[in-house]
Structure formats: C-alpha cells, structure tokens
Amino acid sequence: MDIQRASSLLGSPGSMETLEKQLSCPICLDMFTKPVVILPCQHNLCRGCASDLYDSRNPYRFSGGVFRCPTCRFEVVLDRHGVHGLQRNLLVENIIDIYKQQQEGGSGGSTTETPIKPKSSKEPMCQEHEDEKINIYCVTHQIPTCSMCKVFGQHKDCEVSPLASVYQAQKGELSNAIDALVAVNGRLQALLNQMEEACTAVQDNAQGAKQRLGECFDSLYAALEERKNVLLERISKEQDEKIAALRSLARRYGDRLQAATELTDTAVQALEQSGAADFLLASKNLIAQTKDVAKSSLAEERPEPGFEKMDHFTLDTEQVETLLSKMDFGGDDDEEFEDAEDEEEE
Questions:
Q1: Of the given ranges (21-30, 157-166, 311-320), which has the lowest mean pLDDT?
Q2: Would you call 275 helix, strand, or coil by DSSP?
Q3: Which residues pair with residue 160 across a beta bridge?
Q4: N or C terminus: fewer CB in 10 A for the chain?
C-alpha cells in the first residue's frame, strides 16, 4: 500500500472502514501506534505489542530470541537489540497520519466513520477544571492542559498546539532516542567485549611472562650450580695435592724412623756386650752412623707454615647478592652486570 492508494481509499465510508482494518494491529486490534515495526515476513506490529509478544510468558514465543508472527506464524529471530532492532515501517506511519488528518478534518463527509479507539478508556482530567479533559499542549510551559486553561486560565497567553500532534512528535522523538540509546548500548557492549578480551590477553601474557621469568631463574640456578661445581673441583684438587704431598713426606719420615729405630736397637745391643774388644770393633762405625742419622733428622724437609690452611678459597658473594637483589625488568640490568664484571676483573 502506498500513499496515493491510501488517499484514494479515503473517499467513502466503506473505504475508510477497510483502510482502518488494514491499519489495525493484529495484537491489540487498535490502529497501529507509532513506531510501527515491520517483521521479516512484511507484517506490521506496534512496537509495544511486539515487546509484549516477545515477553517470556507469551505463548507465541517459544525459544531464546525467537517468536512467531501472529498473522502468518513466521518465525522471527531477534538480535541482541531485541524488538528495537526491528525496522520501522515509515510508510504505514505516514498513511496513519493521513488517515488521522482526514478524521480530524471530517473530509469523509459521513457520520458512520469509525473513531480511533483509545488505548485507555479513562482519560486524564485537568486539575484546575475537573470537568475538562486534557486536550491541548502548552508549548510555552511544555505541559499538557485543557481548553479552559487556554481561554480563561493560566495558559491564556501561551502558545499551544494540538495534543495529538505533540504526542506523535514526542513519541517519534522518544523512539529515535531509544534507537540512539540502543546503538550506544551496542557500542558499550562492544567495549565490554573488548575489555573482556583484553583481560584474557593480560592473563595469557602474564602467564607467559611468569613462565619466561621462571626459565630465566632456572638458567641462573643452573649457572650457579655449574660455577659451584667448578669451584668445588678446585678445592678438591688442592686438597688432594696437599694430602698427597703430606702422605709422601710422612712415608719418608716413616722410612727414616724405621731405619733410626733399627740403628738404635743395634747400638743398644753393642752397649750390652761385655767384651771390650768386641765392642771396640763395632763402636766406631756405630757412633758415626748414629751421629749421621741424628744430624740428618734435624735437617728433614717440613711443610711450610700454614700449609694446611684453605682460607684462600673463601668466596665473597656480597656484591653479587646486592646486584641480584636489585635485579628488575628492563634494560638497566645489563649495564649493572657489566659494571660488576669490570669491578671484579679489577
């Protein structure tokens, strides 16, 4: 249905009734209320009725964001915007505006025209004039009021406008604001999704950083362990060399002690002999041997003083500990390590 066809149908009472039926919502059975939404099956609903239809308690709705068109039972799938994601049928809204203008102007020329059915049977009344219905809108003060207030009351000098036109204009404005808000909500949801993705990325990156840090310290542990084994090997090597030297010296001492002991036994036996001639035959040689052995024992090789000490293997780790305690993320650590190495070489 286009605008020209709608205008041609306004020429007779029967056409008016037919047009009103075509402009009636299949849910509330009243004329469509702005904004009118068009379903994928090309059938129309009031947005309020579409929202009611989308309610979880409605029998037409059967899963998630899906409900059935009340006219043809077509399955309508909604996106995350819900009913506000459906497209408005501006053509039907324009036809309704033409129809209402014809109704208000009485251009149909017949008293059998069907009036527009009100959404509520109880209309609000003016507080100043209790018998007067609120039927006009004060543009100056931005509030609805009655005709008596315009003629005799506090709004007599104000600019007024028909209630229906302001009603439609503000409903359209609110609908546009809702559409804008829905768009903003979509952007906010996208930002929330980005924040969630960023949180996940931070967690993954932190886990990777922790793993790399653990690998670095494992490398440090391995390097320290390797260096410790090298230093331990140096200590063990010097220990073995000193012990070998001492044992060799001890063997020489033992050999000389054994020879001196045997010579001592021989000299004592010579002293025990009773014959002077026998003693004198052996005494000269024994005296010379005894003196030589005693003299050579005094000049025996001995270890240097402090030979047994191992103090020179003391390791000073204070500087390294200080450097490790200042270890941090960044590029400054390399310079600090280089400075430490230079000081160690000096």
A1: 21-30
A2: coil
A3: 138
A4: C
Can you list the positions of beta strands (E) in 94-180? 136-138, 143-145, 160-162
Distance of alpha carbon 37 from alpha carbon 88, whole angstroms: 4
Nearest residue to 149 via CA among 163, 135, 162: 135
Distance CA 254, CA 260 (A): 10
Which tokens belong to 69?
């068109």
d(CA 143, CA 140): 8
Show the tokens assigned to 218.
């494992």
- Which pair of structure tokens corresponds to residue 94? 């324009």
- Determine the Cα–Cα distance for residues 14 and 324; give it in Å rounded to an integer: 96
pLDDT band for 132, please (50, 70, 90 cuts): confident
Strand partners, 143: 138
The first and second tokens of residue 269, run together, are 């036996």
- Backbone φ and ψ for 60, nearest 5 degrees, come out as -75, -20
Helix (H) or strand (E) holding 144, with range, is strand 143-145
pLDDT at 59: 52
Report yes or no on whether pTM surpasses 0.70.
no
Q: What is the spatial distance between Cα 156 and Cα 24, in angstroms, rounded to a whole number?
A: 38
Q: Count of H helices and E strands in the chain?
A: 9, 9
| pLDDT 10s digits, 308-343 | 888 888 988 899 889 989 989 886 555 555 665 566
Which position has the higher pLDDT, 55 or 253?
253
Predicted local distance difference test score (pLDDT) of residue 216: 93
Query: What's the CA gap between 14 and 276, in Å, rounded?
Result: 178
In this structure, how many other beta carbons lie within 10 angstroms of the beta carbon of residue 171?
14
List Cβ neighbours of 36 (8 Å cut-off, separation of 6 or more): 44, 45, 46, 47, 88, 89, 92, 93, 96
Residues 305, 310, 316, 321, Cα dihedral to 10°: -160
Token couple for 58: 């409605």
Q: Say how many Å lie between the first and final Cα of the chain, rounded.
A: 98
